[in-house]
Every structure is written in structure tokens, then in C-alpha cells.
């Protein structure tokens, strides 16, 4: 049998996630073209000319890795339309607030598609129902129901990535002559909603299509045990004047709260909620042992000294992370819905509201943040509101 033709993938966003995670997991099995704003022109030109870039992988040590088989174009380049039309998959890595801005472009691409060749989009943004919301925005821009001509699916992005300005050895710049670098941890595999890639041949091994029940479990694990943990301890560390996540290893009470968050709140809630979601054909539900091992592993990853992740990255845009569909509110509600008191998550949510006030991201009162922004109902969520307010007093 002849080998499958390499897939053409367009990645919207040549930032930390696109370069630090997607590039390595998609190549060499796919031809990857990065599209970004004209301000990224110098990087995009290097990608186009050299067909490669460098990112720095952490772990036990820092090591530069070269990713080949890529190109780059500015969104206003006439060749961008050709790249879109040739794409077997488009992946958005622009951040949830920017998705409405790219919806008209994606609508135009979908409308140009010939019958039987749907536009397949994978969303690499954090949050719940991202794909549903993007599909709605695209169809509004197209002014029609695109039905099977448009397939949009969510993904689970499990790798921590960051941009480092003015890198010094052993960290190498993303391309020779550029004054910034991409640093990313070693983590492999991208769960995606299976319907968005159904029927495509030649998917790279890093892309893992999952049916709805399995994907829902993968997404919840990421939102609670990764994104939720990251947000909670970053806010607590910020309030204590810490600058990097690895410094938190010396804060015994923060690490104990993180342990309780993972093993006494997130793990039992997730195992109960997703006990019927088969991760493979051999067993039903999330596996207790694997998930508890993951809970220990993720805390060590987040606080890795080699990654040396700045806490500022965790609290940046904290009001966005307090939205009802985002990691903090979603985690509190998910744990509570399983009959478990989400004390650690509630402490982190209270800390996030405090961070938002101290940094000037909001002028709302604490109560207004909870009810007006997080959308907790004063009557239906009375117990959660009391818990969050009680946790605030202990900050």
C-alpha cells in the first residue's frame, strides 16, 4: 500500500503554543504553514526561507530542538488564501478573545470549499465550548448554516510553552538573528474531537482523535488538574510576592493546598464524573492509578526549575480566567456537582479576584466579581458563595 500523502496544516498564530507544541507534534508527518499578523513578518520570512525554526525543550536539562517542514505567511499576503484553500486542517492558536476576529476569514474559506471537502478546524484555545462558539461566529459571518461544509472541534493542549526575550545560552532564539526564543516542556499527544478529523488519512501520531465521552474526560482533566492548578497556585504565589513557579516548592502550605486540590478535589470529582468514559477499548472510566500518578506529575511539571515559568504569566489576564466557562469557575462547579466541597479551588478563585483588584484589572467589588462576572447566582449558588467568601478571609 502506498504511503498516505502528507497533510497540509495551517496554524493561525506563530506564538509560544504554535511553535512550542504544535510544530513538533505535527511535523514531519504534515506540511505546516504558520499564518500571523504582519508585525510577525520577520519570523514568518525566516520560516518561509529556511523551512525550519528552533524551540528549547525543558526537562532534566534545556536542549534546543529544530522543527523542519514548516513555512510562514502574513495574513494579508495574497498567498495566504492559497494556503487556506490547500489546507486539510486549520488550527487556531490565537487565544479565545481573538477568535471572533478570524471568523470572517474562516467563513470566506469555508464558502470557497468545493462540495465534499469540508473546512476542518481544530481550536487550540483554553475554555469550554470554544469550538461551538467559533462555529457560531463563522456561520454568522457566512450568513448561512454551513452544515457539513464546516467541521470544528476542540483540542486539549497539554504542553506549557513560553516566549523568552533576549535569550542567552543554552537557550537558542527561534531563528538566527531574532531576539526571542520559545521554551516548552516535553509533553506529547494532542487529544482532538474525533468528528472534526473523521475520514482524514495520514494523521500524525501526535494527533489523537477521541470520541465525545473520552474527549470530555480529557478536557476536564486538563481544565481542573492542569489549568485550574496553574491558576490557583499562581494567584496565591503572586499575593505572596513570588516571581516564579519553582519558588513555590519552598511554600509548604501552598504545596499542601495544591496536593489537596489535585488528590482530594479534582481526582475524586473527575473519577466520579467520568467513570463511564472509556479511554480505550479495554476498560471503562478514567483509571484511578493513572490519574493519581498524573496528579503528582503535573505539580512537578508546573513547578519545574528548568522551565522556570514566571508567575506573571499565570496571573496575566486574570479576569478572563474568571469567566464562567474558564478554569476557575468551571473547576469549582465541576467539583461541587460531584458532592465534594471545592475548598482549594474556592481559595484560588478568591485569590484570583483579589489579584484582579490589586492589579487594576477590575474596579468591581469582590461580590460583584462573583455574581456579575463569574455568574454565580445569589440563591442557587448560595453555598458556593459562602465558601468562596470564607476562603477569602484566609488569604
Notes on the structure:
The protein is an alpha/beta fold. The chain folds into 2 domains: 7-210, NAD(P)-binding Rossmann-like Domain (Rossmann fold), CATH 3.40.50; 213-393, Orthogonal Bundle (N-(1-d-carboxylethyl)-l-norvaline Dehydrogenase, domain 2). Helix content is 44%, strand content 16%. It is built from 13 helices and 12 strands. The strands form 3 sheets. It has a 6-stranded parallel sheet with strand order 5-2-1-6-7-8, with helices on both faces. A 4-stranded mixed sheet has the order 4-3-10-9. Strands 11-12 form a two-stranded parallel ribbon. The longest helix has 28 residues, at 212-239. The N and C termini lie far apart (63 Å).
CATH class of the largest domain: Alpha Beta
N-to-C series of helices and strands: EHEHEEEHEHEHEEEEEHHHHHHHH
CATH architecture of the largest domain: 3-Layer(aba) Sandwich
Shape: globular
- Estimate the helix proportion, in percent: 40-55%
* Average pLDDT taken over every residue: 95
Helix/strand structural class: alpha/beta
> What's the CATH topology name of the largest domain?
Rossmann fold
Main beta sheet: 6 strands, parallel
Taking pLDDT < 50 over at least 5 consecutive residues as the criterion, the unreliable ranges are none
- Which radius of gyration do the C-alpha atoms yield? 21 Å
Task: Kindly report how far apart the N and C termini lie.
Answer: 63 Å
How much of the sequence lies in strands comes to: 15-25%
Total count of strands? 12
Q: Output the number of helix runs.
A: 13
Query: What number of structural domains do the residues give?
Result: 2
CATH superfamily of the largest domain: NAD(P)-binding Rossmann-like Domain
State the strand order across the main sheet.
5-2-1-6-7-8
Amino acid at each position: 500500500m502506498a504511503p498516505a500523502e502528507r497533510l497540509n496544516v495551517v496554524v493561525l498564530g506563530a506564538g509560544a503554543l504554535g511553535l512550542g507544541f504544535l510544530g513538533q507534534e505535527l511535523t514531519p508527518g504534515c506540511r505546516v504553514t504558520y499564518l500571523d499578523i504582519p508585525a510577525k513578518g520577520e519570523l514568518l520570512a525566516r520560516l518561509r526561507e529556511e523551512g525550519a525554526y528552533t524551540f528549547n525543550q525543558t526537562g532534566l536539562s534545556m536542549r534546543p530542538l529544530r522543527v523542519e517542514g514548516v513555512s510562514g505567511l502574513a495574513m494579508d499576503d495574497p498567498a495566504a488564501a492559497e494556503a487556506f484553500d490547500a489546507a486539510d486542517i486549520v488550527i487556531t492558536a490565537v487565544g479565545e478573545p481573538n477568535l471572533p476576529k478570524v471568523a470572517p476569514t474562516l467563513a470566506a474559506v469555508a464558502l470557497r470549499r468545493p462540495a465534499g471537502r469540508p473546512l476542518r478546524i481544530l481550536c487550540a484555545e483554553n475554555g469550554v465550548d470554544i469550538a461551538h462558539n467559533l462555529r457560531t461566529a463563522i456561520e454568522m459571518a457566512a450568513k448561512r448554516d454551513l452544515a457539513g461544509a464546516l467541521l470544528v472541534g476542540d483540542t486539549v493542549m497539554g504542553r506549557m510553552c513560553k516566549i523568552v526575550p533576549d535569550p542567552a545560552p543554552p537557550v537558542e532564539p527561534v531563528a538566527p538573528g531574532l531576539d526571542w526564543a520559545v521554551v516548552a516542556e516535553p509533553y506529547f499527544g494532542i487529544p482532538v474531537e474525533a468528528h472534526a478529523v473523521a475520514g482524514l488519512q495520514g494523521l500524525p501520531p501526535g494527533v489523537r482523535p477521541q470520541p465525545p465521552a473520552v474527549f470530555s474526560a480529557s478536557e476536564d482533566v486538563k481544565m481542573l488538574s492542569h489549568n485550574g492548578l496553574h491558576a490557583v497556585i499562581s494567584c496565591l504565589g503572586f499575593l505572596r510576592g513570588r516571581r516564579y513557579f519553582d519558588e513555590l516548592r519552598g511554600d509548604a502550605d501552598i504545596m499542601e493546598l495544591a496536593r489537596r486540590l489535585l488528590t482530594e478535589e479534582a481526582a475524586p470529582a473527575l473519577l466520579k464524573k467520568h467513570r463511564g468514559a472509556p479511554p480505550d477499548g479495554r476498560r471503562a472510566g478514567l483509571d484511578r492509578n493513572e490519574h493519581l500518578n498524573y496528579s503528582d506529575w503535573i505539580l512537578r511539571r508546573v513547578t519545574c526549575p528548568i522551565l522556570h515559568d514566571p508567575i506573571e504569566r499565570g496571573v496575566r489576564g486574570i479576569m478572563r480566567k474568571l469567566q464562567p466557562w474558564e478554569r476557575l469557575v468551571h473547576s469549582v462547579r465541576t467539583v461541587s456537582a460531584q458532592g465534594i466541597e471545592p475548598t482549594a479551588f474556592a481559595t484560588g478563585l478568591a485569590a484570583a479576584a483579589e489579584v484582579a483588584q490589586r492589579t487594576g484589572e477590575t474596579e468591581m467589588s469582590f461580590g460583584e466579581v462573583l455574581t456579575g462576572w463569574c455568574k454565580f447566582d445569589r440563591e442557587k449558588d448560595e453555598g458556593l458563595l459562602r465558601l468562596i467568601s470564607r476562603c477569602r478571609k484566609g488569604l
